[in-house]
Amino acid sequence: MRTSSTLHQTPSTGFSSYLRSVGAVLAGLFAGAALSLATDEILHLLQVYPPWGEPMTAPGLNLLALAYRCVFDAAGLYLVARLAPRTPIRHLWIAAGIGFVVAMLGVLASLNANLGPVWYPVVLALSTFPCAWAAAVLYAKRVPTTEPVRG
User: Fold this and answer.
1) pLDDT tens sequence across 72-104
2) Contact 29, 99 (CB under 8 A)
3) Is 66 within 8 Å of 120 (Cβ atoms)?
4) Distance between CA 77 and CA 71 in Å, rounded?
5) Contact 135, 106 (CB under 8 A)
6) How far apart are CA 148 and CA 87, in angstroms?
7) CA–CA distance, 49 with 135 (Å, rounded to integer)
8) What parts of the sequence cross the membrane (predicted)?
9) Sign of the CA dihedral 124, 109, 118, 61?
10) For the stretch 19-46, what's the b/e string if a residue is b when 16 or more beta carbons lie within 10 angstroms of its beta carbon?
11) Model pTM greater than 0.90?
């Protein structure tokens, strides 16, 4: 018979733990991407950015996009760690690795797309790891000192 205390326990092994791990990584990656795209859309609607499909060549606008994408990427990676069923820092770095691969695919796609300067997607890809480090530091600060950060 299940008691109320066992109803709220989450299994730490097996298939459900695997699903929670995958869910944590996907949720964090989705959150970072959704926040970035929503901000892009707002800035397009406010005519800060040129219309979709037109090149964004102004360095200041690219730096603005890079700045909020770094913040949102770090927030998404922090979310990965918060949602991870175990080894939160390891989950965070796995998500960062996936994000880096996707960003590098973006670099390759942008080479002939003429959407703006080539340095932007390169720097965006390279910023993945400093953003992950920042998220890991923020996560480690939230964990009480009596609980070791596993990773």
Assistant:
1) 999 999 999 999 999 999 999 999 999 999 999
2) yes
3) yes
4) 10
5) no
6) 10
7) 28
8) 21-39, 59-80, 92-112, 118-140
9) negative
10) ebbeebbebbbebbbebbeebbeebeee
11) no
